[in-house]
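User: Predict structure, ligand FE2/S2 (inorganic) cluster.
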Amino acid sequence: MGSHPVANQVANAVYICICNGVTDHDIRQAAAAGCKSMPELTMRTGAGGNCGSCLEMATEVLDKARGMRLAIPSGTAVRFEPGQTREVTLVALGGKREVYGFRQEVMGKL
Ligand code: FES
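Assistant: Predicted complex:
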């Protein structure tokens, strides 16, 4: 019998920012909540706010979170109110991995 996928994510988390105890899971969770840039990630999690040695790795994890979607049934949603946090699971987009978004932040291949 398998364990819960979110529990597996937390158990397998890797510390990206040692100064602030921020894991890759924390970064993906911030991305799922709408975080799109390193300055925003620093404000939300503290990652990169001290020595800065984690900036490159944190940016890479944040960038890789693009092209992911919430693992929720089609036609449903997860609502985030300001200041609210939730546990969510992300899965990689399939198909051609091309995205054309309303904000035009990604317009083509991921
Ligand atoms: S390791 Fe992230 S600020 Fe120092």
